[in-house]
Amino acid sequence: MAENNDGIDQLLYRLETLMKRQEAFSKEVMEIRAEINTLKNTRIKEIKEKEETTERSPVTGGLIEKDKVITAFQPAVQQPAKEPPKYSAPKVSEPSQIKADLEKFIGENLINKIGIVITVIGVAIGAKYAIDHDLISPLTRIISGYLIGSGLFFFAVRLKKNYENFSAVLLSGSMAIMYFITYAAYSYYDLIPHVLTFVLMAVFTAFTVSSAIYYNKQIIAHLGLVGAYTVPFLVPFLLPGGSDNVTILFSYTAIINIGILVISFKKYWKPLYFSSFLITWAMFLIWFGTKYQIVEHFGLALTFLSIFFVTFYLMFLAYKLLQKEKFDIYDILLLLVNSFIFYGIGYNILSGHDTGEHLLGLFTLCNSIVHFMVGLVIYRNKLADRNLFYFVSGLALVFITISIPVQLNGNWVTILWSGEAALLFWIGRTQKVRFYEILSYVLMYLAFASLLQDWGVARLLTGNESPETGMTPLFNKRFLTSVLFIASFGFINSLNHNPKNPSPFISQNDLNNFISFSIVTVLLLALYFSFKIEISAYWDQRYNSSLIELKKIGQELPAKYWNTDLVNFKIIWILNYSLFFFTVLSFINIKRFRSQNLGYFNLALSYIVLVVFLIQGLYCLSELRESYLNHTLTEYYKRSILNIGIRYISFAFAGLMLTSIYKYINQDFVKPVIYNFKTAFDIVLYTSLIWIISSELITWLDIKQFSQSYKLVLSILWGVYSLFLIGLGIWKKKKHLRICAIVLFAVTLIKLFFYDLSHLDTISKTIVFVTLGIFLLIISFLYNKYKNFISDDPGQ
């Protein structure tokens, strides 16, 4: 009956609102008609003249034309439904409607809730005042509180028939006061014993839950829940005590949760379930993190952990299964979180116990069996659709998956997880089982995290081992694990792009793109870092084995030296590998995949690697050159011509990367998003050229022992290069090249005045000033001669 009354009230309210809108529409229609008639009267004479001239025509006769004129404004009366799109929100009714809705909300819903909260606060303040000033005895204070709560309860019962919503709020307030007063009687005055406190709390909770079902008001359950959880939690949990207090607390909490479980068979009040779930597990986790003792609480913790897990498992399943409703994403998330909280805490409890640590595999398997049995019951009794069955069965697979690292360790975990991810993805995609595919994504990232851990452990080991005890590059279990991981993700990626098996998220374009991008990204990261780590490990082992200890006369401890050239070789070869990797990736994408997203990703990384090479790579090459020419520690370490020759190998890789970038920017599937790719390429290309040429010039000046002249020659080189860019920019009508040339020339002049002058002799100063001056005159001449040509530059 209460539900029917609420429904009738809502329908009457909607009917009243629509009638008000209809009146506003009618008023506006009349105004429009009046305006049309006014405009029509100004043309009535012209229409009559037209009627006389066209009356005899069967197609454009006057009578027909007259009808058209009349029907031009008649639809405003006969078919007002065509007009509302322009006037669907009249200015007259909208503010009044908002005010009416707001007023109704405040008057009927908000004020009573604020009032009851203020009442409860008032009782609390009054009780505190009486306590502070010792106005009445403790027993009188408690009795007064119970009387106030009982009074609210009495009025709630009397008003229920005619004011059900208001009655529900009063009832909630009375229960909150009862909780507070009971708490005060136990905590402050010891007027009631421990057991009686919990009995009263249980009675209040049972009454609150039953009232919530009877009233069909979730707010009653929420207020009762807050009182039922928080007050007894504060009393026994925060006060000193042993396992008895904890047992009573958790027993009481379990009773409350069972009461809410009863509600779940009748009502689907998700906020209520979520609140109980959050408070219960938060309470258990706080206790476990602060007061858990292995010897004293081991059995107790496992017992109540299992009770809470089973209660919430049934709570989230009960209503949906009985009503045969579909599970949404939030239901699934709650089931997942409940399962993993239970497993996480249980694993922690067992792992810290002498006997329990040997039962971890069995505990994990039991989790899998529980979910499998639930899935079997659902399937055999057809309690829900197949998606729920697949989900619960998937949870069983999850815990089988978790049992892998519990019983095994290291690289086996990565191998089995990546293989299982590939298997689940294949089943989910080919058999159209959405949940299995979702589960495969979880396993993919778990496998990737495990691979990262394997890499981290291996990196730490190789950083401290010598070649005699270290792993052989490419022929070790770390690299084998990486290869199998790459194979699994390669299979997943190929299946993901197979048009015969479309993604279940194809309608959700953003999500589908993110999934595809993530799979490709993980695959490329695994492929890139697998070889990079091997290169790094090889040079690290060589560097560690290069240690020598030299003890000089008078020194107590020997001095330690390492071959620092090996560090520079390591950086150079990693950069060479990076240049090669992204160059090959570019050509593969251009020739086969032609993926726009991969193209953008590849271009961005190519530019980054190229810049790192110009900054760090050329510096390391110069360090190798200096080491070779200065014969640093040559009596202990061999310095070969490779210190010089390695630079040309690196230049070849850089040239290949520039070629791949040039190929990219000329592809039709790669379109500029923010900036012109060709302009950016020109800037990177000519910057790289002057940078490499300058480094090469300094190298050969050092080899020829003209190192003191490099300042002079370098300034002249930059001036010549600036002149070259100006000419090229005018010829190709590329404004950005001319601007780059001007910037380079400005840098050259700054270098000349603030650095070169203090280090050059008079002849060198004369040469550089005259040369740069001539270059400036030539540049000016070119600008004047080709000013008309430049003015036609489309880049202007």
Topology:
Layout: H1 2-41, H2 44-54, H3 62-73, H4 75-78, H5 84-87, H6 93-133, H7 138-159, H8 164-187, H9 194-215, H10 218-238, H11 243-266, H12 270-290, H13 294-323, H14 329-351, H15 360-381, H16 386-407, H17 411-430, H18 434-462, H19 477-496, H20 509-545, E1 548-550, E2 559-561, H21 565-593, H22 596-630, H23 642-665, H24 677-703, H25 710-732, H26 735-756, H27 762-785, H28 787-791
Antiparallel strand pairs: 1-2
Describe what this molecule looks like in 3D.
By secondary structure, the protein is an all-alpha fold. Among the domains are: 69 residues, no CATH class; 160 residues, no CATH class; 89 residues. Helix content is 80%, strand content 1%. It is built from 28 helices and 2 strands. Strands 1-2 form a two-stranded antiparallel ribbon. It is extended. It starts with a helix and ends in a 5-residue tail after the last helix.
Radius of gyration using CA atoms only: 41 Å
Average predicted confidence as pLDDT: 76
Q: Could you tell me the strand content as a percent range?
A: under 5%
Portion of residues within helices:
over 70%
List keywords for this structure.
extended; 2 strands; 796 residues; 1% strand
Summarize the structure.
This protein has 796 residues and is an all-alpha fold. The chain has helices at residues 2-41, 44-54, 62-73, 75-78, 84-87, 93-133, 138-159, 164-187, 194-215, 218-238, 243-266, 270-290, 294-323, 329-351, 360-381, 386-407, 411-430, 434-462, 477-496, 509-545, 565-593, 596-630, 642-665, 677-703, 710-732, 735-756, 762-785, 787-791; strands at residues 548-550, 559-561. Residues 54-96, 234-243 and 464-469 have low confidence and may be disordered.
